[in-house]
Amino acid sequence: MPDTKNWTQLFPMDRKPSVEELDQYADNPLWPELRQYLKDAYGAEPRMDYSRCGLEPGWNVKFKKGSKALATVYLRPGYVTAMVSVAPKDEDAAEGVLLTCTEYTRTLYRNTASSKMGRWLMIDLTSPEVLEDLKALLALRVKPR
């Protein structure tokens, strides 16, 4: 059972969590599956950066393929949320991908405002099907190996 203390109390700025601690804290089987997929498909390893952001302060887990950001992952006990962006140039392709996605992901996409920087989706990984949706959206940004 993960410690339910606040993330920023467990891991202040001077205490970067290990991958094992991330796994324990998240306590969600979709988290290691996402991590392994990003490693296999993109060669992306988790990189932790400390953020003072008022909405999500603390250690963020970022994944990149070269200089391209793939996702930023936020962990809470039992929950995994992945922030991914869909660039304006990819929105037409995203409409096609969404046809195969869950209703949750389609609704999230429709309800997320588009800007000149794209749509920033905060996807709660609640099922293997939603994880598949995430993979399909990531492939719009960067093609997997």
Give a concise summary.
The chain is an alpha+beta fold. It has helices at 7-10, 19-26, 30-42, 91-98, 103-111, 128-141; strands at residues 47-51, 58-65, 68-76, 79-86, 119-124. A five-stranded antiparallel beta sheet has the order 1-2-3-4-5.
Task: Tell me about this structure.
The mean pLDDT is 91. A 5-stranded antiparallel sheet has the order 1-2-3-4-5. The longest helix has 14 residues. Helix content is 39%, strand content 25%. A hairpin with a 2-residue loop joins β3 and β4. It is globular and about 45 Å long. With 145 residues, it is α+β, with helices and mostly antiparallel strands.
Mean pLDDT: 91
Which spans of ≥5 residues are poorly predicted at pLDDT below 50?
none
Structural class of the secondary elements? alpha+beta
Number of extended strands = 5
Order of helices and strands: HHHEEEEHHEH
Percentage of residues in DSSP E strands: 15-25%
Q: In angstroms, what separates the terminal alpha carbons?
A: 35 Å
Which assembly state applies to the chains in this document? single chain
Shape field: globular
Biggest β-sheet: count, sense, barrel?
5 strands, antiparallel
Radius of gyration: 15 Å
Helix content: 25-40%
| Sheet with most strands: strand arrangement | 1-2-3-4-5
Count of individual helical segments: 6
Features:
single chain, about 140 residues, alpha+beta, 5-stranded antiparallel sheet, 5 strands, about 40% helix, globular
Write the layout of secondary structure elements.
Elements lengths: L6 H4 L8 H8 L3 H13 L4 E5 L6 E8 L2 E9 L2 E8 L4 H8 L4 H9 L7 E6 L3 H14 L4
Antiparallel strand pairs: 1-2, 2-3, 3-4, 4-5
Helix pairs in contact: 4-6
